[in-house]
Write a structure and sequence with these properties.
- The complex is a heterodimer of chains A (282) and B (638).
- By secondary structure, chain A is α+β, with helices and mostly antiparallel strands.
- Chain A has 2 domains: 94 residues; 133 residues, Cupredoxins -  blue copper proteins (Immunoglobulin-like, Sandwich).
- In chain A, strands 3-2-1-5-8 form a 5-stranded mixed sheet, with no helix packed on it. Chain A has a 5-stranded mixed sheet with strand order 4-10-9-6-7.
- In chain A, helix 1 runs antiparallel to helix 2 and helix 2 packs antiparallel against helix 3.
- Chain A starts with 5 loop residues before the first helix and ends in a 30-residue tail after the last helix.
- In chain B, helix 14 packs antiparallel against helix 16, helix 17 packs parallel to helix 20 and helix 20 runs antiparallel to helix 21.
- Chain B is 63% helix and 1% strand.
- Chain B has a two-stranded antiparallel sheet.
- Chain B is an all-alpha fold.
- Chain B folds into 2 domains: 79 residues, no CATH class; 496 residues, Cytochrome C Oxidase, Chain A (Up-down Bundle), CATH 1.20.210.10.
- Classes of the chains: A alpha+beta (282), B mainly alpha (638).
- At the A-B interface, helix 1, helix 2, helix 3, strand 7 and strand 9 of A face helix 7, helix 10, helix 13, helix 14 and helix 15 of B.
């Protein structure tokens, strides 16, 4: 048995590396995580990423450094065949490992759940009737996915359907996401929104943009060959700019209204199947 | 028909060559498959013209029913041609019971139904290796397409088929990557048995998997399939006939999984030699056992779901079609109820292999045997309670998300047990860095990153950013390729001396390891970055500012593929150019599988089953007085 106290030496190495690495993760890596924090949801997601990265760092260092340490110091001397100590377990170590990992996991779960509830689903699709709704919804917009494009309907503006989207800043917006055919997913990374568009399901997500910018919306659920091309660009604008835009849209798309079904939370799919006996609706 | 009795010389040895061709083997199997296919196709076509079918099927352009029946009858014809019907029919005609078929007879027995678990193990290794190669080729095509941010190489339609083939081949055949070759070969020896509990079913699982693989690859003749490995409805229903290949493939893989799992369970429960108690079962057998339980419980869900999907496609039901009263959520829910245990079916055997190899090269007993077993059981149990974390943004049961977040994070506790056993075993050990040991260390590094990124994905707020992005791809490649894949390749280096009687070249092996480890990380670490920058999965269009990073990934991926070819080169080199005959126990292991001679006799233990009451597979190390020198992985209190 060698003289070195491996336990103490490794603990010191690990502690020093952790003390150096965790601040780096929080203040150097952290600001680069997340896509832009242009809404309450996006902000919270970026913070959560940083928190998770900071919590993971000591564990990653523990195992990672240990592998290097073991590879360096617990070696078989060249050309020999020595046996290690025949130790089979240690209750103290095992119990402390279980306690530490369990507490960490519980903290993570509580943290995630609180963030989820506080931010009204944190920009995720939360089903047709989310338990936790913001009281100050300032605008509703329906997001309709179909192969392979997105359109938007505005129930508070006569149900007009537009091919593009502009939304007002500092307004809690309720996105009602649905699909006319297969499953899509409406994702705006800058605003931290991601909600699946399911046929005949109204999937609601909330987000409040907090700055003016143009954003990209994209489908992130595989929906057929042009899935990758199912993206476009929208803008977060001031409220007066938004009102001006939507009135222009109402005038522009009035001729199309007679071809549209009345506004509803979900619509009959364009087809159930091209094979299973459902004719395309006329 | 060869219904040989134990120890009877098989009649196939004396048969002339032409007689071998018309016996029951792969050639007659292929003939049976073709005949079955044709019969199935015409039955399907005939059914399609019945008045009822005309009524329900208004807008049809394709022959899904004919194709599904053709595939099904083709598989039956193949199995009959292989000789799987001989024994049941023979028994019905009053022939005597027998356990054994084609256990001797040279290389020929590898091309037919063999009841020797060692033959089946080698069949599996070659078969799974072939599909691993096919999946890898598809990965190369994917990376080539992603050299550009617009579809310029294969185009969006073929691209989706290639993505689908890569993922389905990998997930479908790699479920058997460890249980097929290594568990079939070594579990009976480790537990001191002469064979598996159901030798014919063991052979059946392999040939079913091969038939399934051929069916999957035939999808390219029917237009491919656009859904990726998840096969989500209603896209599934909308797809061309190539989708039927996916459905039949996965259903057959499911059947193969159930049979393989049941066989393993029964073998381990009933056939342990005296002394192999549950507390002394080798850790790899424990991992196999838990995996087998997961297979038996999860795979039927897959088979049933795909049957429903096939009915939707072929005869006009609407389980998953909203317009007919069905639900697309139903498919997602059922699929992931299978799909999540499935990923642990992929991970657990890797855990077992690593912990089995580790003590040999650390020259210490396995540390924390019981906590490792508890880890396997915990992972196995929890894997049935986490599946909706794949559906966090789908809107399904949104109010249950805190529960799934908790259960998903809880599953990292038992996974941590496996790491603890790893850490404890190498504490103050005497490590020799042979090639298998290098792979063990690489496994720990890769799975650590895979696990940590999994915790990030399990949190709903971060999942909202990362779901459906390249981050997910990096995460599961670190756990499956970096975990299972590295354990698999490490186990090849470890077990080839016993299975084939020669050692793989150590120098090429080390070079191959470093090439594989470095290129693997060079491929998938940047993919985390791509995901964090918002690159979506399964797309042929992506933002122009990600082109450079994607090209880096593509080049690293080509090199990774080359490093896998190096493994093939090593096999050829060690076999042909510099053959080093392996001794019975080249690694000085204490495991039972290394105490039997090489090549392993047909009966494993020809004289009598070993008495293992004084046998300890982890009997390494020098005793320590008082246990005072207990390992204290210092940072455990982190």
């Amino acid at each position: 048995m060698d003289e070195i106290n491996h336990g103490r030496r490794f603990t010191i190495i690990w502690a020093v590396c952790t003390i150096i690495a965790v601040p780096l993760v929080i203040w150097v890596l952290g600001p680069n995580l997340g896509y832009g924090e242009a809404s309450n949801a996006g902000e919270d997601q970026a913070t959560t990423l940083t928190v998770l990265a900071a919590i993971a760092t000591p564990f990653l260092l523990l195992v990672g450094l240990y592998l290097v340490y073991a590879a360096m110091f617990f070696r078989q001397p060249r050309g020999q065949m020595l046996e290690g100590p025949a130790v089979r377990d240690d209750a103290k170590v095992q119990i402390s490992w279980i306690v530490v990992t369990s507490i960490t996991v519980l903290i993570l779960a509580v943290y995630g759940s609180v963030a989820l509830i506080q931010n009204y689903g944190d920009g995720t699709g939360s089903g047709a009737s989310p338990l936790n709704r913001p009281s100050h919804v300032g605008l509703r917009v329906q997001v309709i996915g179909q192969q392979w494009t997105w359109t938007y309907r505005w129930p508070e503006y006569g149900g007009v359907e537009t091919p593009g989207i502009e939304i007002p800043v500092n307004t809690m917006i309720e996105f009602n996401v649905t699909s006319l055919d297969v499953i899509h997913s409406w994702t705006v990374k800058e605003l931290g929104i991601k909600a699946d568009a399911n046929p005949q399901v109204n999937n609601i997500a909330f987000a409040e943009p907090n700055r003016l910018l143009s954003f990209e919306y994209r489908c992130t659920e595989l929906c057929g060959i042009w899935h990758g091309a199912m993206y476009g660009f929208g803008r977060v604008v001031t409220r007066p700019q938004f009102e001006e835009w939507i009135h222009k849209m109402q005038i522009k798309y009035r001729p199309a209204e007679k071809y549209l079904p009345p506004f509803a939370l979900t619509y009959q799919p364009k087809f159930g199947s091209h094979r299973a006996g459902f004719e395309e609706e006329s | 028909m060869s219904l040989a009795y134990p120890h009877q010389s098989s009649s196939s040895v004396e048969r002339p060559g032409w007689r071998k061709l018309v016996g029951f083997n792969i050639f007659t199997g292929i003939i049976g498959a073709v005949i079955g296919y044709i019969i199935g196709w015409y039955i399907g076509k005939a059914l399609t013209t019945t008045p009822y079918y005309e009524y329900i099927r208004v807008n049809t352009l394709e022959d899904d029913l004919a194709l599904i029946l053709a595939y099904s009858f083709g598989v039956i014809g193949f199995l009959v041609g292989m000789g799987f019907a001989n024994y049941p029919v023979g028994r019905m005609l009053g022939r005597p019971a027998s356990l054994r078929e084609k256990e001797t007879g040279g290389a020929w027995r590898y091309f037919g139904l063999s009841t020797d678990h060692k033959v089946v193990g080698i069949q599996y290794l070659v078969g799974v290796g072939f599909f691993f190669f096919v999946g890898g080729l598809n990965a190369m095509l994917i990376r080539t397409e992603l050299l550009h941010n617009t579809p310029e190489f294969v185009g969006p339609e073929k691209y989706l088929t290639i993505v689908g083939l890569h993922s389905v081949v990998m997930l479908g055949t790699l479920t058997s990557a460890v249980l097929g070759p290594f568990a079939n070969y070594f579990v009976p020896i480790m537990i001191g048995a002469r064979r598996m509990a159901f030798p014919r079913i063991e052979a059946l699982t392999f040939w079913l998997l091969m038939a399934a693989g051929v069916i999957l690859l035939s999808t390219i003749f029917f237009g491919g399939f656009p859904t990726g490995w998840t096969g989500y409805e209603p896209l599934n229903d909308q797809a061309l006939m190539g989708m039927d290949s996916y459905i039949l493939f996965f259903a057959l893989v499911g059947i193969s999984m159930v049979l393989l799992g049941m066989n393993m369970i029964v073998t381990i429960v009933t056939m342990r030699a005296p002394g192999v108690t549950w507390g002394r079962l080798p850790i790899f057998c424990w991992a196999t056992f838990v995996t087998a339980v997961l297979m038996v419980l999860a795979a039927p869900m897959l088979i049933g779901t795909l049957l429903m999907a096939a009915l939707d496609r072929a005869i006009g039901t609407s389980f998953f079609l909203t317009l007919g009263g069905g639900s697309a959520y139903l498919f997602e829910n059922l699929f992931w109820f299978f799909g999540h245990p499935e990923v642990y079916v992929l991970a657990l055997p890797g855990f077992g292999l690593i912990l089995e190899m580790l003590p040999v090269f650390a020259r210490k007993p396995l540390w924390g045997y019981r906590i490792a077993v508890a880890g396997f059981l915990g992972v196995g149990l929890m894997s049935f309670f986490v599946w909706q974390h794949h559906l966090f943004v789908s809107g399904i049961n949104a109010d249950l998300r805190p529960f799934y977040m908790l259960s998903t994070e809880i599953i990292s506790i038992p996974t941590g047990f496996v790491f603890l056993a790893f850490i404890g075993t190498i504490w103050r050990s005497r490590i020799t860095f042979t090639v298998p040991m290098l792979f063990c260390f690489a496994w720990a590094f890769n799975f650590l990153i895979g696990g940590a990124s999994g915790v990030v994905l399990s949190d709903v707020p971060t999942n909202a950013q990362l779901h459906g992005s390249f981050f997910v791809i990096a995460h599961f490649h670190y756990t499956i390729m970096g975990g299972l894949g590295f354990a698999f390749v490490g186990a090849i280096y470890y077990y080839v001396p016993k299975m084939f009687g020669f050692k793989l070249n150590e120098r090429i092996g080390k070079f191959q390891f470093w090439a594989m480890f470095l290129t693997f990380n060079a491929t998938f670490l940047p993919i985390f970055a791509l995901g964090l920058k918002g690159m979506a999965r399964r797309v042929t269009f992506y933002p122009a500012d990600l082109i450079t990073l994607n090209r880096v990934v593509s080049i690293a991926a080509y090199l990774l593929f080359a490093s896998m070819l190096l493994l093939v080169y090593n096999v050829v080199y060690s076999l042909v150019f510099e053959r080093e005959r392996a001794t019975d126990n080249p690694w000085h292991s204490k495991g039972m599988e290394w105490q039997v001679p090489t090549p392993v006799p047909v009966d494993n233990f020809p004289d009598k089953i070993p008495d293992m009451r004084d046998f300890d597979p982890y009997d390494y190390g020098v005793p320590v007085s008082g246990g005072g020198a207990a390992p204290a992985p210092a940072g455990a209190g982190a």
